[in-house]
Each structure stands twice: as C-alpha cells, then as structure tokens.
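Cross-posting from the chemistry board since nobody answered there.

I work mostly on the small-molecule side, so proteins are not my area. We synthesized copper (II) ion and want a rough idea of how it might sit in this target. Sequence and SMILES are below. Is it possible to get a predicted 3D structure of the two together?
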Amino acid sequence: MSRWARTAGLVLMPVLLLSVALLGCSGDKKKGGDGKKEDTKKDDGEPPAGAMTPVKVGANSIAGTVKLKEGVEPDYDALNADLKKRIDKNTNRAACKEAYQQTAWIVDKSSRGVKNVAVWVMPEKETEFFDVKELAEKKQGFEPVVVLDQPHCHFEPRILVLFPGYVNPANPGDASSPNYLKSGQLCYAVNPETSISHNTKLSIPFGGGQDANKTLTHSTKSQPEKGGFNLTAEGKLKPYDLSKGPIKISCNIHDWMEGAAWSLPHPLGTTTNEQGAFKIQNVPDSGKVRIFVWHEKAKFVNKGGKEGEVIDVKDAKQDFTIADVK
Ligand SMILES: [Cu+2]
C-alpha cells in the first residue's frame, strides 16, 4: 500500500467508524432503516461531496502563445553573473563552458515568445477528473518516453510536463485520495558526456513519489534505457496536488543546474516552443476547464494564479503575456 493510501486510511478510519455509528443511530428512525443513502446523496442529484466525477476528453484543442511584455527585460547580466560565480568554483568548469550562458529566460527576439513555459488544463471543479483511460491504453496524446538530456552541464529541456498516471474511472476514489493507474510513460535522465559525471536529483512534493538521486554514467538520448536514470521508476512518480509546486530537478555535482517537472493526472499539458507557442490536444468538446501557465522565474502568469484560470473550451485561442519577471 502506498504512503498516501496509508495516510488516507489513518485519517479516514476514525471518520468512517464515526459515520457507521451515526448511521446506525439515525437509520433506526427512518422507514426501512436505509439511512446510508439519504446521508450520502443530496436531493438535487448532486454527487456526495468528495466523490469524483469523470469528464470526457474530446477532439478539441487549445493553442496560443506566451510572450514577454514589450519593455520588460529579465536581468540577463545578473543571471549570467550568478552562473559564472558558481561555475568558476567547479573543477568541471572548462568542460562546462557552454553553461555560462543563462537559459532560464529564452525569449525570441522578434516575436517575444518565451520558451519552456509549462501550460496545462484541469477540469473546472476539484471533484472532477479527465477520463483518459482510453488515451493511456492507446498511448495517444503523449510521448511514451521523455528524455531529460544534460549537454554541457545544463538540463535540456529545463521544464518537463509529465503524465505518470491517471484516475481510474472504474474506481476513482475520492477527491482527497484519488485512485491512480500508471500511464506507462517513462522519463529518463541521460548523461551524454563521457568525461563528466552528473548526480541527477529529484525533490518531489508530498504525494508525488519519493526523492531520488543517482550518479549518471555515459548514456544517450537515442537509447535512454541503457544506463539512463529511470526517473519514473526511481522517483515512483505519480500525479499529486499541483498547488504544492513542481518537482525540482538538480545536480549534486553542479549546483547551477536547475530544472522542474509537473506531474499531471492526464496528458493535457505541454511546454512552449522557441516562439512561445503551445498546443494542448484532447480537450473536452464542451464546458469549462482551468488553464495553468507557469514559468520557472515568473511563476503562474494566468489569472487566478495557482488556482488556474477558468476558460470555456470554445475559446480555443489563448494568449498570455508575462508582465513581471520577478
Ligand atoms: Cu551535473
């Protein structure tokens, strides 16, 4: 049994026992003694609080751009100076010389599009979940293998959006303890350098798996399963409460190496490209969703912050502007 399930069990058990006791008392007073149904279901047909409701995914897509506001510039000199200070202290500095150029902000000069912004959607209500069993089983809408490369001592890509598991539609559990099935997606970290070691480290928010780190020997993007660090398995990755923030990725040997990963319960998420463009597929055909747009320095740039911004899926073009570089 997983840690969250045990924790949930410890918390829920006294509540369940108390509920059974109360039902036993109140049930005696009702006709037929069927107090349980009346206590857990409201008259208006709404599901009981905490119950999970499936939302069908569809053939819709939401696309747009994330741009940096005109006139707003990150302090590139300060970012590069900080990198220089850290890299100069390291014995690998000669081999890591390409890491001196900051990659936290990658802004396209002509369009002002920002790369490496994580964008995803969630159902409108916390008690809803996207039913993606079919997508998971058919391996549709997501990369089955994601590779975190580490050329010249930086992470490539810096930001990942992962899909390690989904809510089991046959037995969804409850909003505070969803029952997840594995998606089958694998994520590997590899080390393409032969002369440098990296100790890749995952720091995972509570409920998302377990912290892990490993010193990587030579391994490649084309065959990550040969010597790569299987983050999915070693980190026991699974979806978690995203309000706790992303999984932090770092390197114990090179302290300037920084990356982050969001671990979603569905594949309706992505990152922006060089022009700041994104496209999310398999969006429901109707209704509302919450959209989240996150940059590692600017944090959430959508309205509503970490609660997400409610949009109608009919508004399929969604553009965002980063106005504050923090
Ligand atoms: Cu490293």
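Reply from a structural biologist on the board:
Welcome over. Reading the output above for you: The chain has five helices and 22 strands. The longest strand covers residues 60-68. Happy to explain the token format if needed.
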